[in-house]
Structure formats: structure tokens, C-alpha cells
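Bug report (template v2)

What were you trying to do?
Predict the complex of my protein with S-adenosylmethionine.

What happened?
Run completed; filing so the output is reviewed.

Input:
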Amino acid sequence: MSDEQRIRATYDQVAHKYHRELGAELDGKPLDRALLDAVAELCQDEPLVDLGCGPGHVTAYLAERHTGVTGIDLSPEMIRIARIENPGVEFRVESMLDLSAGDASWGGIIAFYSIIHLTPRQRVQAIQEMSRVLQPSGWLLLSFHINDEDFKAGDVNHLTEWFGHDVDIDGYFIDPDEITKHMDEAGMSVVASTIRQPNPDVEYPSRRCYLLGQKK
Ligand SMILES: C[S@@+](CC[C@H](N)C(=O)[O-])C[C@H]1O[C@@H](n2cnc3c(N)ncnc32)[C@H](O)[C@@H]1O
């Protein structure tokens, strides 16, 4: 199985539980909501895409604040749930490593915790691809885990069990400097960076980073 097949199979398996347990998580994440609000405003009337949207709860939040929002995910089961939960919102199955969108077609991208399963080489490819589809001055907000009690930045956590399912997937802890460098090399400037502690009882207890970039 390729990396993408393993990621897709894992998320197809956990999609229902993921949605049930995390579908309302934004209620307990005021800082995340503020960052999403900022991007929805910055994008004005341009297309805004939630890349690696999972069950679509972040997409739905954006769609309440912005017209022209689309959710994209590798997992067909995630997209099936996202469509049922959010009938008025557009969703499609696609990989962020090979997007069908034309060059310079999107005004903004949200990628919340969707690069966390990509190998270091795939992270470069994904960020190049995000830059390719962004309009000049377009916006990218991406987030990822930096470290936790057991893992430091650069470490990989191989999961064999998740949400009660047997899975086969790697989760990467990532140094913000690495992603900043990739964004710079892909033609984006990091204009804001937020590092925060976990919200107790709401999410996995990791230290997290949010980078807001603008295409040059
Ligand atoms: C940790 S979940 C995050 C979901 C959602 N963004 C959130 O904040 O809850 C990671 C998501 O990224 C998706 N994903 C992983 N690799 C992907 C790829 N190459 N292209 C598109 N989506 C991908 C997975 O299917 C999964 O739904």
C-alpha cells in the first residue's frame, strides 16, 4: 500500500467516530475560530478551500462566514459524512499532493492538521502545490502539532490503533521553522505565527502551531 492508500484507509475507518468526537470541537477553540474568521475576512470574495477537511466542521464554520467555500479530503468516507452534515456546502475527494485546480485559482486555503501525516518530502510537495493554486496575495493558514509529553518536533508516532480501529498511519510532530522555510521556498511569506498550548479536555494534548502565509 502507498502512503496515500494507508492514510485514506485509516480515515475511512475512523471517519464516523472522528466526526462524533470532534465535529463540535470548534466550540471549545476560540483562538482557532479567531484565526478562521481572519482568513474568511482576508479572502474577501475569492474562493476559499478547506484542504484535508475531514468531516467538514471547519468547512461549515467557514461557509457561514464566506461564500465560495469548498472542502477537499483524501478520504471518501470523510467526504460522504461532510456532504450529509452540510448539504449546502461543496465537497470533493482529492489529494493535496495533486490538486485538480488550475494555477492561481484560489484566494485562500485552510489546512488544519492535514499535513500531519505527510512525510517530510511530501510536506514540501504539498506546500508547493498549495502555492501553485493560490492567487497572488492569496492566503494560507495551516496548523500542525509541534510536540507533546512523549514526542519532540521531528518525531513520528506510528499508530496501529485509533478510535477503536486497527489502523496503519504515521503522525508527524513538526518544527515550525521547517514549514516556514518550505513556505518561503514555495513563494509565500509567513505573516503571522501562533504557537499555543492544548485546550484542556477538548483536544489531543500537544503544543500546536498555526502559520498564516501570503503568496508573493
Ligand atoms: C487530523 S485530520 C484533520 C481534519 C480537519 N481538518 C480537522 O481539523 O479536524 C487530517 C485530514 O487530512 C486528510 N488528508 C491526509 N492526507 C491528505 C491528502 N494528501 N490530501 C487531502 N487530504 C488529506 C485526512 O483524510 C483527514 O481527513
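What did the reviewer find?
The chain has one domain: 3-215. The pocket of S-adenosylmethionine is lined by residues 4, 7, 11, 22, 52-54, 58, 73-75, 78, 95-97, 112-114, 116-117 (CB under 6 Å).
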